[in-house]
Amino acid sequence: YVETDTDFKHHLDLPVSDMAQLREHSGEIMLPLLQKWLTYPFKIVPVCILRQNPSTAKEIAEKIMNANKILKKKIFIIASSDFSHFVSPETGKEKDELVLKEIDNLDSNTLYETVVKNRISVCGYGPIMTLIEYAKLITGKPETTILARGHSGKTSPSSSVVDYVSIMFYE
After folding, report:
1. Comparing C-alpha atoms, which of 126, 109, 107 is closest to residue 51?
2. Interatomic CA distance for residues 73 and 57, integer angstroms
3. Mean pLDDT, the chain, whole residue set
4. How far apart are CA 149 and CA 39, in angstroms?
């Protein structure tokens, strides 16, 4: 069991939508990892983004920043997303490179345009854009580093894979 940070949730003042939660599964993937690796008590505020666009990302990033200006908590933000879905490893790598370039450029607008124009199946580009915008708000010019990269075909060989990339944003 992990407690919800109700103070932070209240200060975020985000609308609640059952529809946004309908097919979301990132929390059930992330929570066991956090419970295993974090050695201190923590609370969470899960946020699902139904309208994935740059203006929504900027709005949520500002709400997170403003809430924490009041609460002054140590926060850790995770943007959970698979990258390309059900494509060949080569196609996934090629398409993901386009997204990774815009993450590295810290450019939510171009990231959004790239995903839409190239029909890239990265499912959580809204949370990724939110993390980009939040990082820019609190550090000005954050750095990014790819920590790990792979695809589902590495554990169960297949010509149709889902890609995964772990990226850290830091000052």
Report:
1. 126
2. 21
3. 93
4. 25
Angle of helix 108-117 relative to helix 54-71, nearest 10 degrees? 140
Beta strand extents in the chain (DSSP E only) = 3-4, 43-44, 143-151, 163-170
Residue 166 has pLDDT above 80, yes or no: yes
| Helix (H/G/I), strand (E/B), else coil: 113 | helix
User: Which of 107, 125, 143, 151 lies closest to 49 in space, CA to CA?
Assistant: 125
Tokens of 85: 């879905």
Helical packing angle, 125-139 and 108-117, nearest 10°: 170
The model's pTM is 0.92
- Inter-helix orientation angle 108-117/89-104, to 10°: 160
Token reading at 10: 């209240």
Contact 160, 88 (CB under 8 A): yes
* Tokens 């946004």, residue located: 20
Per-residue confidence (pLDDT) for residue 44, from 0 to 100: 94
